DNA sequence: CGTTACGTTGATAGGAATCAATGAGGGTGG
DNA sequence: CCACCCTCATTGATTCCTATCAACGTAACG
C-alpha cells in the first residue's frame, strides 16, 4: 500500500547502458559469471566449468534490433544470454510474424535449430544484450556431461512452454496478468526487482505473443492500472498490488 | 505394425502376466525395431545401438486407461513409444485437467520430468500401447552420444510445440483442421494411412487440447463432414479431400 | 433395460476482434 | 527549435465468433 503513494522515478533506457559498463569492467568467465546457477554450469564440476569456459566465445554484444540469427540459417551452436533481453519470432509461409517468446539472462537460446541443423525462428535483441556462444563441437569432447545439462534446459523450457500453453484458454485479463507475473518472476530469479521491470515488447508484440489484439492488450493493461494493480509508463511496468494480481491469476 | 490394431481384449487396471509372455515371444531389439529411424538410434552407430539395446527395458505394455507415470512422481527415465498412443495431461492447482498432447510410436515421452526430477504431467494410454523404458544412468556410460540424441528429440519437440502454439490464434475450424493434418502427417511418417486414422481423444479432450468447447469441436467436425472434406465414424476419421483441407489450413 | 458418459444440435449471451478515429512520442529535416 | 511524419498506443462503436446453457440422441455396459 505504501507503494501506491511512493514517487515513481522512471529512468528510461538506462538499464542497458549500466549493463554494458558493468560487463566491460568485469571479466566474464563462466566461473565467475553471476548467472552461474541459471546458466549451463549448473551440475558441472569445477574442472568441467573451466573447460566450458574455453569453449565459449565471449563478448558478443547485440544492440537493440540486432539479429542473433535468422530463420532458415544454418545452426552453428547455442547461445547463453548474459544480459539484456531477446525476442524469438517465427515467420510462417504467409509472411506473418509470430512472437514465440522472450529470453532473459541465464536462458539458453538456439534450441530451435538443434534438431534439423536449421533455425526455425529468428532471434533479435530487444535491448543491448550480451550473449555467450556455446561451441558445441569443442565442448562435447571436453565435457560429455554438457548435453545432459543442455537437455535439462530444454526440458525446463518444454515445461514452461506447456504451462504457458494452458493459460491461453483463459480470458484476456488472465493471460496478461500471467505474462506480467512470468516476467516478474523471471526478473526476480535473476536478482532484479519483481515489482518494477521492462515489458520489452510493444503492445502489438505482446498481443501477438498472447494471441490477442493490440487494442485488447491496451485496454486490459489500462484497466489494471485503473484498479491500482499496476502502474504503467510506456514499456515500463510497476506492480503495485502483487497479492491482488496473483489472486486474479489463480481464481 | 499389427500391434496398433491388435484385437487383444482389454481388461482394465493392471498389466497381466499373459501379455508379458506374449511379448517375450515377440521380443523386439532396438536393432530390428521398425521405428528405428524415428526412435533414439537415429544417429548412433551399430555398436552404440547394440549397447543401447541392453540399456532399454522392453516389455512394458499399457492398456487403455493405464498410467505410464503420474504428475509429481519421481523421474526415473524416459520412454520411447513402440506402438499405440498415449496422452499427456497436466492438472493445475485447481484440479483442472489440461490435455497437453498425444504421443505416437517413435516419440519420446518423459521430458516433463527431466529438469526437476519430478514429472510435471501425467501420461496415460489411449489404447493398448507398448513403450520401451530408457535407463539413462546405464546408457550414459555406454553411449556418451545418447544425450545429444535426446536433445535432438527435445529440440524437435520444442519446435513442434511452438508451431502448434501459433495455430491457437486462428479460428476454431483452422485449429481442428490443423489437429487432423498433424495426426495425418504423424501417422503417415510412421507408415500408417494418412487418410484413415483414429482421433484417439474424445471430443472433450480434443476441445481441451485445442482450447475450444466440446460443442464447437462437434459442430466443426460435422461441418467438415457436411462439406465432404472428411468422414466421421465415432473416433475414426477418414480424410476425403486432403487438398481442400490443406488449403483451408493455409489460407 | 436402465444408467451413465459422451456426442449432437439449437438458442442465447458475452468477450474479444475489428473498424474507426484520435492522441502521444520519436525521429528527421527545414 | 519547431513542424512534420510515422509508428505505436489509446479509446469508442460495432460485429462476429465461440462459450455457455439447455435439451435430446446415442452408444457402451453392467
Verbal overview:
The structure is a homodimer of 251-residue chains. Chain A has 251 residues and is of the alpha+beta class. Chain A has two domains: 14-158, Jelly Rolls (Sandwich); 169-250, Winged helix-like DNA-binding domain superfamily/Winged helix DNA-binding domain (Arc Repressor Mutant, subunit A, Orthogonal Bundle), CATH 1.10.10.10. Chain A is 40% helix and 21% strand. Chain A has nine helices and eleven strands. Chain A has helices spanning 2-5, 14-25, 46-54, 136-142, 146-165, 172-189, 203-210, 214-226, 242-250; strands at 56-62, 67-69, 78-83, 86-91, 97-103, 108-109, 122-125, 129-134, 196-198, 230-233, 236-239. Chain A has a four-stranded antiparallel beta sheet with strand order 1-8-3-6. In chain A, a hairpin with a 5-residue loop joins β4 (86-91) and β5 (97-103). In chain A, α6 packs across α9 and α7 (203-210) crosses α8 (214-226). The model of chain A is unreliable at 1-27 (pLDDT under 50). Chain A binds chain B through residues 90, 92-94, 98, 100, 111-116, 120-121, 140, 144, 147-148, 150-159, 161-163, 165-166, 168-169, 208, 211, 250, and chain B through 90, 92-94, 98, 100, 111-116, 120-121, 140, 144, 147-148, 150-159, 161-163, 165-166, 168-169, 211, 250. The structure holds a DNA duplex (30 and 30 nucleotides).
Amino acid at each position: 500500500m505504501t507503494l501506491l503513494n511512493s514517487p515513481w522515478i522512471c529512468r528510461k533506457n538506462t538499464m542497458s547502458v549500466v549493463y554494458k559498463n558493468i560487463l566491460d569492467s568485469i571479466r566474464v568467465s563462466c566461473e565467475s559469471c553471476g548467472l552461474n546457477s541459471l546458466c549451463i554450469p549448473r551440475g558441472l564440476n569445477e574442472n568441467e566449468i573451466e573447460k566450458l569456459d574455453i569453449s565459449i566465445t565471449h563478448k558478443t554484444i547485440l544492440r537493440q534490433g540486432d539479429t542473433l540469427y535468422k530463420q532458415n540459417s544454418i545452426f552453428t551452436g547455442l547461445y547463453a544470454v548474459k544480459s539484456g533481453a531477446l525476442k524469438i519470432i517465427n515467420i510462417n509461409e504467409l509472411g506473418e510474424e509470430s512472437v514465440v517468446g522472450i529470453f532473459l539472462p541465464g536462458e539458453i537460446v538456439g534450441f530451435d535449430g538443434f534438431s534439423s541443423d536449421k533455425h526455425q525462428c529468428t532471434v533479435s535483441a530487444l535491448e543491448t544484450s550480451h550473449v555467450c556462444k556455446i561451441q558445441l563441437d569443442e565442448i562435447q569432447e571436453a565435457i560429455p556431461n554438457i548435453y545432459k545439462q543442455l537437455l535439462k534446459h530444454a526440458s525446463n523450457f518444454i515445461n514452461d512452454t506447456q504451462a504457458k500453453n494452458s493459460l491461453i484458454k483463459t480470458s484476456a485479463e488472465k493471460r496478461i496478468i500471467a505474462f506480467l507475473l512470468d516476467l516478474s518472476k523471471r526478473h526476480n530469479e535473476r536478482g532484479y526487482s519483481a515489482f518494477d521491470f521492462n515489458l520489452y515488447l510493444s503492445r502489438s508484440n505482446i498481443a501477438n505473443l498472447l494471441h490477442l489484439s493490440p487494442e485488447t492488450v491496451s485496454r486490459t493493461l489500462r484497466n489494471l492500472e485503473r484498479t491500482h494493480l499496476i502502474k504503467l509508463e510506456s514499456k515500463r511496468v510497476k506492480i503495485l498490488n502483487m497479492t491482488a494480481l496473483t489472486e486474479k491469476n489463480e481464481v
